[in-house]
Write a structure and sequence with these properties.
The structure is a single chain. The chain has helices at residues 2-32, 36-55, 58-73, 82-98. The chain has 99 residues and is mainly α. Helix 1 (2-32) runs antiparallel to helix 2 and helix 3 runs antiparallel to helix 4. The protein is elongated and about 45 Å long. The two termini are 21 Å apart.
Length: 99
């Protein structure tokens, strides 16, 4: 049973990294088109918040979802890789603190 839990954790870790990079890239695309791109954030911001809470459960997901929403809705903050930073916190920093 423990081996199965490790496989699921490794798969989620890889999945979350790939999806995080993809979602950060989507968020940054709107940054490349001045003014028009900021309008698209009205659609992407709630979706980014939802996706963050879907990927990361519990407090990390809730806080990350709120930050992702604010980062996308506020003008000129699209360059912040919120999903990738959340992945680093979840799988590198938090894991080190647990040991």
């Amino acid at each position: 049973m423990e081996e199965q839990a490790q496989i699921v954790t490794v798969n989620n870790k890889t999945r979350d990294l790939v999806l995080g990079i993809l979602f950060d890239a989507i968020g940054m695309l709107s940054f490349t088109v001045p003014f028009i791109g900021e309008f698209s954030d009205v659609i992407w911001a709630p979706l980014a918040g939802f996706l963050m809470t879907w990927m990361y459960k519990g407090t990390i997901g809730k806080v990350g979802g709120t930050i992702a929403f604010l980062e996308e809705i506020l003008p000129f903050t699209d360059f912040i890789p919120t999903f990738t930073l959340t992945w680093i916190y979840t799988y590198l920093i938090k894991k080190q603190n647990a040991q």
